[in-house]
Amino acid sequence: MKAAEAGIWKSTEMRRRLAEAGLEISAGKMSALWTGTPTTIRLDDLDVICAVLKCEPTDLLIREQEKVAARRPRKAAEATGGTVVTPRFGRHRSVPPA
């Protein structure tokens, strides 16, 4: 949307403007940025993109709370599907090798 607001309607035009600003992007990476599905982006690159589009990073980034929630580790009981087994430390411990 920010590219369209800046009058940039084609990814090739955006790629050209980024190159003029000092950021060379491959066609594959540009395609991912243009379609809105980039897997990663360097903060330095984001700065150049924002300079070209005359916007702030928050204008380009969208929070995806469901993806954040999916990354949280599950509790041990949920992971095993049952009760949590906790080790009990006895008196008969082995001695580390000398």
TrEMBL record:
<dbReference type="Pfam" id="PF13443">
    <property type="entry name" value="HTH_26"/>
</dbReference>
<keyword id="KW-0238">DNA-binding</keyword>
<feature type="compositionally biased region" description="Basic residues">
    <location>
        <begin position="89"/>
        <end position="98"/>
    </location>
</feature>
<dbReference type="InterPro" id="IPR001387">
    <property type="entry name" value="Cro/C1-type_HTH"/>
</dbReference>
<feature type="domain" description="HTH cro/C1-type">
    <location>
        <begin position="4"/>
        <end position="65"/>
    </location>
</feature>
<protein>
    <submittedName>
        <fullName>DNA-binding Xre family transcriptional regulator</fullName>
    </submittedName>
</protein>
<dbReference type="GO" id="GO:0003677">
    <property type="term" value="F:DNA binding"/>
</dbReference>
<feature type="region of interest" description="Disordered">
    <location>
        <begin position="72"/>
        <end position="98"/>
    </location>
</feature>
